[in-house]
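Progress against Task 2.4 (sequence-to-structure conversion) is shown through the following example record, which the project officer requested during the mid-term review.
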Amino acid sequence: MALMITDECINCDVCEPECPNQAISMGETVYVIDPARCTECVGHFGEPQCVQVCPVECIPVNPAFVETREQLQRKCEALQAQGAAAAGTAA
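Structure tokens generated for the chain above:
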């Protein structure tokens, strides 16, 4: 399951740097989470780091993107492989 940021976001800027997959970015009015990059920190941490640091608790599970822990792990591995491939071509 990917996470999402609700309209209660106060744009405090603490979630974006915590995301190991660079899934969080500034949207039109509040931060947004790219569901294709969000693994809920599976493969990196035991808990979603953005949820841990959010002072207004506005980061629930996105019901439109339901995934198992195994699917999230595979997504994490694919993102890491993409990153490694991109780093290899940049060298």
